[in-house]
Amino acid sequence: MYNLGNTFSDMEVGSGTNLLISDPSMTGKRDIALDILAHGGNGGDGDGAIIVTTKDGGEHILSEYNSRLDTTTPVGVVDCVSKQQGMNPRQIDGIEFASSPVDMTGIGIKLSEFLQQFYDSGVRANRIAFDSLSTLLMYSNLQTVFRFLHVFTGRVQSAEALGLFVIDSMAHDNQTMSTLRQLFDGEIEVREAEGNDSEIRVKGIGSTTTWQPL
């Protein structure tokens, strides 16, 4: 079981669960994903964390994640950005590189390598975040992304991990969102409320929760 943290009233989900995190705005989704990952690291169980980033460089993401930790836990970042931008990124422990967001084979290989590395070091529970699916859909068609995610979510399930997948819901039509939702066990929705505050709810896992302040 994986506890999602205080924001979700300490809701627990089963091992192998894949959750979509959707938000019509440009902010908040990644913060939620990283907070859920860090909750596993800070909870005393020492859950491993793997972050696939298709939007920002690995160093930046690693720093964002580590700033949430109050302990040392295994973390791995698959950076799909730096090499695509023509950079020659320096080698840093915990960061591996795919050639671009469309290097889906490379992304899958790096994920498996981190899972094996963590398993060999005694880590049996892992939380995996993918930021973001919208970037994949910018470079590849829906069918290709769907096939890739079918394999990726299956890997999360077989590893008995927790998968979190960020998407900008307003960037895609209803058919695309409906197709992708088939791959996930549930969804964390975020919306803007009055006063530019945000609200959050969880649906698809048990009863849909009510909207609550984020």
Please tell me about this protein's structure.
The mean pLDDT is 92. The longest helix is centred in the middle third of the chain and has 17 residues, at 104-120. This protein is α/β, with parallel strands linked by helices and 214 residues long. It has helices spanning 29-42, 58-66, 104-120, 133-139, 142-158, 174-181, and strands spanning 2-3, 12-13, 17-23, 48-53, 75-79, 95-97, 126-131, 162-168, 186-192, 198-203, 212-213. The chain is globular. The strands form 2 sheets. The protein has a 9-stranded mixed beta sheet, with helices on both faces. A two-stranded antiparallel ribbon has the order 1-2. The chain has a domain at 13-161. The chain contains 6 helices and 11 strands.
Features:
two-stranded antiparallel sheet, 214 residues, single chain, nine-stranded mixed beta sheet, alpha/beta, globular, 6 helices
Which class best fits the helix and strand makeup? alpha/beta
Largest sheet: 9 strands, mixed
User: How do the strands line up in the largest sheet?
Assistant: 6-5-4-7-8-3-9-10-11
The residue fraction in helices comes out at 25-40%
Described by the principal axes of the CA atoms, the overall outline is: globular
> Count of DSSP E strands?
11
- Indicate the radius of gyration in whole angstroms: 16 Å
C-alpha termini separation = 23 Å
The number of distinct helices, counting runs of at least 4 residues, comes to: 6
Uncertain regions spanning at least 5 consecutive residues:
none
Helices and strands, in N-to-C order? EEEHEHEEHEHHEHEEE
Q: What is the typical, i.e. mean, pLDDT?
A: 92
Which range does the strand content fall in?
Answer: 15-25%
